[in-house]
User: What shape does this take?
Amino acid sequence: MAIPSTLDPRCDVLDVPDRAVPGSRVPGCDRAPHAPTAQVTGPRTLEAMTREQQSGSTELGRFLRARRARITPAEAGLTAVSGLRRTPGLRREELATLAGISIDYYTRLERGRETRPSPSVVDALARALLLEEAEHEHLRSLAALAARTVPEQPTAPGRTVRPGVKLLLEGLRPHPAHVVGRTNDLLAANPSGLRLLAGLDEWPARQRNIARYVFLHPAARDLFHDWNTQVRGCVARLRALAGTDPDAPDLTRLAGELLLKSPEFARLWERYDVKGSTHGRKTFHHPEVGDLTLGYQSMELEGTPGHRLIAYYAEPGTPDYDALVLLDLLGAEPSTPRTAPNREASAG
Assistant: This one.
């Protein structure tokens, strides 16, 4: 089953059915903690959301359509014309003109009837859509995928983390570090790497997924100072994977669950952002060690099926580092009561 598109072309919002995906119930993971504010239009199911794919559209076409809707004529350098525009963003004919291709050819690309655009056409479309480097590369990958005559069989991703990588996680203590799979499944972590995501250790190991956590766990919104940036990055990575491996079984399960349970996920999924973040700084409001700001770095682990090691760090001798030491001690003792300790008293 391919990843569903979230919206019918005639609808403005997604109606999320008031039911959970079949399977075991996970504490704190049944619904998003905040109800949607948009007016819904009618019952929607995963079957209905796959209708667009069944009609012949491709990931290439969906990406082009989504990005075309986000570019205004002014941003594209076109002269504004008075009057009401019924189309959000650029019209097909405007994008085709900017890219130097015929309107008919572009329409066939977007509708999945043309699946072999040349590299020069792909590059021209990327320039017209003002794509950044990562987005341009994603467009090239989608074009290559659309040109395949025989689809590749999806493979189940491996979850095994090599012993040497686990030793690295231990060696990074007290700095939080964890290994995630291609869909953000948490595969391994050192004590502070698990404890940093407050409440995640309460879920069964097979349910621990960072994307599921940020959208569905009630503690996530309060934990991340910039929750909106955090969730956009999670969705961008999943969207990029959906473009190049749309039938991946782990991805279809996770995306299907989040489309049903989180209106925020559905809205971001429709935007089709594919640019994630690999490094930077994050501020946490942690219920056990208080506020702390950490640097982070994400690293691809070569020779694995898409595993990444994500490490957080703070300068030794700073209050943030002291908080990490405390967090590491708490994480090493799973039975420790979840009360917020006094960091100054602990340091003394």
